[in-house]
Amino acid sequence: MVDFAGWQTPVQYTSVIAEHEAVRGHAGLFDVSHMGEIEIRGPKALEVSNQLISNDLVRIKDQQALYAALLNERGGFVDDVVTYRFSPERIFICVNASNRDKDFAWIQKHSKGVDVLNRSDEFAQLAFQGPLAPTILQRLTPVDLSKIATYHFTEGEVAGVRCIISRTGYTGEDGFELYCDPASAERLWFAILEEGRAEGVQPAGLGARDSLRTEMKYALYGNDIDDDHTPLEAGLGWIVKLDKGPFTGREALLRQKAEGVRRKLIGFELTGAGIPRHGYSLSKERTPIGEVTSGTQGPSVKKAIGIGYVKAELSPEGSTFDVDIRGRPVPAKVVKTPFWKRS
């Protein structure tokens, strides 16, 4: 257990590799109740929310969700979020644990004519991920999960617990995020574990969550994205809809797009011995070109992999550079991402 954003959170229950492999091969259950939930309500909720985020809520229907960014005036990340459209009068935003108070203050500051509610303490959140997760979860709910497409959601009971059931995830596997009353979370947790025990379901901690998302090149706020990096630099231009109208950070991104980005977030693998870690420097012919933002020995890909920012001219697939591992230059090359793809 470690302290994370004021929460006691599990890094691992058994081992990171065992939990990682359980999610890839069967299913794993994560307690991510530290995440924050902010709700925007009122007749102008859709309009106001759409001016806060980079993606476009108008293009989707009720009971759909979007991955998006809250951006500062320079186009940098205030946070990356999942935004749920319950109705034009009710928008629900899941934010990162370390940013929940900051995000709430930022949203309040940039919102007029709506009610902004910090509901973070009203929800626990469980993430049930893996190829067997839909089958196992279906046995616990009368809701037809096959009718919930990716990045869609509904409300219903799971193991007798009222939940928001969202088909989203952070592992590269199929699965669901379940939002429920904190008082019912323990009952829901053990019901899922018991139902899937014979099929290899395991509880999984933050260690496996990190290795799973790194294999997918999913960005982690504070490591791969922050207020000094933009979605265009992070390879997340697809969550930016510049043609939808005004939103915070739009003008900065329009300028950056016109001028061209000078650095890009790339995925790489080592071609020498070692494991890249956050903060290690990257160099080309002994000249610094960037740094590692995330890195690990990928349990599924069986390779030492990393994510990092490099100068734009070194971002094409096949480009080579060195990773400084404790004073030793280790060769690496840019590769296509995600690192992991299910066959």
Keywords:
343 residues; alpha+beta; Gyrase A, domain 2; Elongation Factor Tu (Ef-tu), domain 3; 2 domains; six-stranded antiparallel barrel; 7 helices; 19 strands; 20% helix; globular
Summarize the structure.
With 343 residues, the protein is of the alpha+beta class.
Any overview of this molecule?
By secondary structure, the protein is α+β, with helices and mostly antiparallel strands. The protein folds into two domains: 2-212, Gyrase A, domain 2, CATH 3.30.1360.120; 262-338, Aminomethyltransferase beta-barrel domains (Elongation Factor Tu (Ef-tu), domain 3, Beta Barrel). Helix content is 20%, strand content 34%. The protein has seven helices and 19 strands. A six-stranded mixed sheet has the order 10-11-12-9-3-13. It has a six-stranded antiparallel β-barrel with strand order 14-17-16-15-18-19. A five-stranded antiparallel sheet has the order 5-6-7-4-8, with helices on one face. A hairpin with a 4-residue loop joins strand 16 (287-298) and strand 17. The longest helix is centred in the middle third of the chain and has 15 residues, at 182-196. The radius of gyration is 20 Å and the shape is globular.
